[in-house]
Amino acid sequence: MLDQLLQYDKELFLFFNNLGTSTWDNFWLVVTNKLTFIPLYAILLYLIYKHLGLKSLLLLVLVIAAMITFTDQVTNLFKDGFERLRPCREDGVKEFMRFIAPRCGKYGFFSGHSSNSMAAAVFAGLLLRPYYKKLIFILLFWSAIVAYSRIYVGVHYPLDIICGMTFGALSGFGFYKLLKYLRQRFTS
Fold first, then answer.
1. What would the DSSP string read from start to end of 109-139?
2. Up-side HSE of residue 21: CA atoms within 13 Å toward CB?
3. Residue 65 placed within a domain
4. Which of 4, 20, 78, 97 is most exposed by smallest CB count within 10 Å?
5. How many CA atoms does the CB half-sphere of 3 hold within 13 Å?
6. Is residue 117 a contact partner of residue 146, using CB atoms and an 8 Å limit?
7. How far apart are CA 146 and CA 126, in angstroms?
8. pLDDT at 121
9. Model-level pTM?
């Protein structure tokens, strides 16, 4: 059953990856670049500062640093534990795919880009929900676009993405709850 699921995953990857065209390649390379969204993060930090104040912002920065470290390290544990080759390294897949990423890491289960972007989206969306009701939907859409970019450039399978996004959503929610607890405890 697992072999069949992995085969479907490969077929779905090849379908989505081969939808790409050279016309869109540069766009997706920009989307998949981690540095592209620094302005978004700066705006989110400003909005949080604007509504919650400096004291909460300092605590928030510590919690965000812990969240990103947590998602990165757990992602690395999964990659090293499962040792699932990325599509750009797997025989029988790499010959039929479009590879446009600048490099191809060794293992890909699960996607760090997907987990980090989803954690940030859920965390910031929940934190700012009282002030911007629809922001969370925009952030979730942004996270899905970042996740898809990893398939487009050829470095992750759909299951890598789905598992990364699920882990990221749970992490973002958990760290949002942690921040609420810490704010009640230390800023009241």
1. SS-HHHHHHHHHHHHHHHHTTTT-TTHHHHH
2. 2
3. yes
4. 4
5. 0
6. yes
7. 19
8. 96
9. 0.91
Residues 6+ apart with CB under 8 A from 23: none
* Amino acid letter, residue 170: L
In a domain, 151, yes or no: yes
* pLDDT tens figures, 24-59: 999 999 999 988 989 998 999 899 888 888 877 888
Answer yes or no: is 98 within a domain: yes
End-to-end CA separation in angstroms for the chain: 53
Q: Which of 42, 60, 36, 44 is nearest to 146 (CA)?
A: 36
Domain coverage including residue 138:
39-186
Counting as low any pLDDT under 70, the low residues of the chain are 187-188
Q: Is residue 84 part of a domain?
A: yes
Round to whole Å and give the CA distance between 25 and 90. Answer: 22
89-98 pLDDT, tens digit per residue, is 999 999 999 9
